[in-house]
Amino acid sequence: MSDPFRRPTLVPAVIYKDATAALAWLEAAFGFERSMIITAADGSLAHAEMRYGDGLIYVGSEWAEFVASPANLGGRNSQTLHVMVSDLDSVDAHCARAQAAGATILQEPAEQFYGDRTYRARDPEGHVWIFAAPVRTVSREDAEAASGLKIEGWH
């Protein structure tokens, strides 16, 4: 994305109790890069944007009754974030980096029936992240046979 103001069609917004701390943690643990920081007159974080590869997330604080960090919901999530790891950064190395920064590893790196190697991690406020990289091409038929699932719309 050469234009810093170009936005993807879909951008998840991740809500934290301490969004400022989350920015530093997401950089250290997962390799996200700050691309926009908007600070309010009182010095608090009003809005932040972070990039990973060609992806973008918004990072913000609990700013209304209908948004909350999983930390304020008993750790419950209504979504997970799925991030494709670049070829330059293996899933295993990415997992080790995240764990060293304090992520809770929910699933160690493993190859999945659909051909990706993935791991799952929980950040300090309870958001669940899945990081993946393709390791082999799998046909729909092979994926169905390996999983026991019926799959429509296979790539």
Fold-level CATH name: 2,3-Dihydroxybiphenyl 1,2-Dioxygenase, domain 1
Radius of gyration: 17 Å
Query: Which outline best applies?
Result: elongated
Strand order in the largest sheet: 1-4-3-2
Oligomer category? single chain
Alpha-beta content class: alpha/beta
Number of discrete helical segments: 3
Report the β-strand fraction as a percent range.
25-35%
Low-confidence region ranges: none
Task: Write the CATH homologous superfamily.
Answer: 2,3-Dihydroxybiphenyl 1,2-Dioxygenase, domain 1
Give me the count of strands: 8
Number of domains: 1
Query: From N to C, what is the helix and strand string?
Result: EHEEEEHEEEH
How widely separated are the two ends? 24 Å
CATH class annotation: Alpha Beta
Helix content: 10-25%
Corresponding CATH architecture: Roll
Chain-averaged pLDDT: 89
Largest sheet: 4 strands, mixed
What key attributes describe this structure?
155 residues, alpha/beta, 2,3-Dihydroxybiphenyl 1,2-Dioxygenase, domain 1, four-stranded mixed sheet, 3 helices, 8 strands, elongated
